[in-house]
Request: fold
Amino acid sequence: MQNHILVINCGSSSLKFSLIVPTSGETLLTGLAECISSSQATITLKYQGNKEQSSLSAPYDHQSAINHLVTFLTKHQLSDDIYAIGHRIVHGGEKYCQPTLITEQVKNSIQELAQLAPLHNPANLQGIAAAEQAFSSLPQVAIFDTAFHQSMPEHAYIYGLPYHLYQQHGIRKYGFHGTSHYFVSQQAAKIINKSPEQCNFISAHLGNGCSITAIKNGHSVDTSLGLTPLEGVMMGTRSGDIDPGIIFHLVDHLGYSLAEVKTVLNKKSGLLGVSELSNDCRAIEQAALDNNQQAKLALQIFSYRIAKSIASFSVCFEQLDGLIFTGGIGENSNLIRSMILSSLSLLNFHEDKAANQDIRFGKTGLISSSRSRSCWVIPTNEEWVIAQQSYQLLNSLSKGKET
Ligand code: ADP
Reply:
């Protein structure tokens, strides 16, 4: 039966994919092509407990990766069960707040929005082009990472800048990681047995990129990432919030070009910049254990800024059901979670040390003590949301045609 969704998340030099049963979330196949555009490009597929890695064939591009995947799907008789392709698209601007069937017009809009996401939207389009060529008879659906945040009120998304910059050029907060915040907030609502519309949460997606979101009655009402994924808390290699005056100082007095400033803020700051060791939280935690002072400082700044962002979002609520940690760091680093919670006692968050130690590596659970407001670790599953929403959209479109 044709009811599987192939989910594609395409970056400029990588392509992640998974084959998912949308109704249950069962993942049948996952894979990752890396170092695309170089002759070192490889593709790894995990299927039925086996892992298979191969070199990609020339021209080592996204199409080569998709062609390899198609050969694999055909060999394992998985192709005929695919119902549609669901694409993660980073920037949907103000135009796209819902899952959207990909047409020529939608592709043009994604291209126009590349102005706001120059690293991501063009790569997403390459993924769409490769998938359209390989699966020409199947519908392609776009799920936008910004969509969940389109419910933010004006006072949260307009910057304190001349208003015409918003009106004429769309300069506003958009937010990202929407699919992840949506997923974990839905899961948290299930845990407390309430409908999402009755729940208020703050969710912290902490991975290489990090964002905090205030979710009121099931809808995003504020989030830490902005026009671009540079605003907000400190991240793996991104600075997060800084005094914008630093940019002028670097250019006017220290001889940096704007391109160099962009690289510093996006690729050389954050955990990497402060520790001068790595952007990988595990490596920094190890170095801190070995008494490296810059590693310790990097972890302190990282946790402090996240706690500060979480606390700032208390202004969005009269009542709060709890805090959610997700993403590679949020799901696995009991140290970072503990450091964050220890700064949030005024909001009545208190860690249960044993539970916090125990809940890692894909486990879901409560890590707060009995006297605390609830705090959960909930592994994210953006791929399942993309599969579910693609499936639901196509079903509703086909029902619409029938009536
Ligand atoms: P991305 O944003 O690229 O999807 P992930 O969500 O996979 O990233 O998160 C990557 C981060 O998670 C890295 O900083 C990594 O060190 C961190 N991480 C993964 N496992 C652990 C762990 N056991 N302890 C601490 N940090 C971890």
Remarks:
- The chain has a mean pLDDT of 96.
- The radius of gyration is 21 Å.
